[in-house]
Amino acid sequence: MMMDSTHTLHGLESTVPTEPQTAARPSAAAPPQPQREVWLDGAFVPAGEAAVSVFDHGVLYGDGVFEGIRSYNGRIFKLATHLKRLYDSAKSIRLDIPYSADELGDAVRQLVQRNGTLDGYIRLVVTRGAGSLGLNPFSSPNPVVFIIADTIKLYPQEMYDHGMHIITAATVANHPASLSPRVKSLNYLKNVLAKIEAIDAGAPEAIMLNAQGFVAECTSDNLFIVAPYHDKTSLLTPPLHASILEGVTRNVVIQLAHEVDLPVVQTDLTRHDLYVADEMFLTGTAAEVIAVTQVDGRKIGTGEPGPVTRRLIAAFRQLVADQAPED
Ligand SMILES: Cc1ncc(COP(=O)(O)O)c(C=O)c1O
Asked: What's the pLDDT at 102?
């Protein structure tokens, strides 16, 4: 039997077979895995046979957009919101996606069922397509769309239980007048560079500041602190203009906070605000919700995940376990 190879996907541990799998012998412990497939331009193909051209501008220039989506018990969490962001990102870079949102949504659902990754992670990618070697995006008239349905575990359980120790990177977030951080583009090099800084420092994540020196976000997560605001315990998070991706999980957590009457303030934050916060946590599709208990060597709050963070983590877990709404 051909074993799955472990590799990294957007810096995340992932298991996708690099070659088509031969039939596995069923065992009592592990049900037989259906052969992993990828959806590529309208067809389900074995993952090991799915390929894009070396002339694809997604490969040559990072010219394309993508989404990372989670499935919980076969339900595609916030699918419509992810698809909206995908089409918004594509519009922003003048990329016409050659499928409707309904068609892509159906493809995602079918792929998850066929691969049996009911609790998994989906990567939906649109590249500019194969063209000439110049930058001109309109020389590549046929965008390529592919979908991977896999599983993911971003950080060790120990960090989910006790929080992460992270650093601030020297690499700055994109200026919104350049490539808008609201566009989830295939060009993640600044995030990769910040991630390298984290790895060099022995940290699992890095905070990026924006061009004004305010806190933006982490390499693949949005950031929240818990702090008093006008004397009331509140959730504070950088606003959309602070060079952040408008995270789907960020918006879910803001909604959960509203439901328990916890004030949410979207405001510019400095590193000092983080250092003196009562609590801090990150949100992202792959990471879900995870506490941060140290930043740049400063203990946050008690140094353990705080009560507000724990409450929001529990509310998030309950939401995805009970309903995982697709809207
Ligand atoms: C740069 C960046 N910020 C924030 C997020 C979190 O966004 P979401 O909750 O939509 O996954 C991600 C992950 O997609 C990301 O790559």
From this structure: 98
Identify the active-site residue in 84, 153, 184, 190.
Answer: 184
The set of protein residues with a Cβ atom below 6 angstroms from ligand 1 is 68, 191, 217, 220-222, 245, 247-250, 283-285
Tell me, what's the pLDDT at 30?
44
Shared domain for 232 and 250, answered yes or no, is: yes
Q: Kindly report the protein residue whose alpha carbon is nearest to atom 13 of ligand 1.
A: 220
Query: Consecutive 10-residue runs of the chain (327 residues): their mean pLDDT?
Result: 36 38 40 74 96 97 98 98 98 98 98 96 98 92 96 94 98 95 97 98 98 98 98 98 98 98 98 98 98 98 98 98 92
Residue 131 lies in a domain: yes
Report d(CA 286, CA 159) in Å as an integer.
14
Opening angle at CA 160, ends 159 and 161, nearest 5? 90
Residue 140 confidence (pLDDT): 81
Look up the CATH number of the domain holding residue 42. Answer: 3.30.470.10
Which run of H or E residues covers position 249? helix 248-259
With a CB cutoff of 8 Å and minimum separation 6, the contacts of 156 are none
Residue 138 dihedral angles phi and psi, to the nearest 5°? -85, 0
Could you tell me which residues come within 8 angstroms of residue 114 by beta carbon, excluding any fewer than 6 positions away? 34, 37, 44, 149
**Smallest CA separation from ligand 1 atom 6, residue:** 284
Q: Which domain holds residue 14?
A: 5-23+33-150
Is residue 232 among the annotated active site residues? no
Look at the block and give the residue holding tokens 């601030």. 168
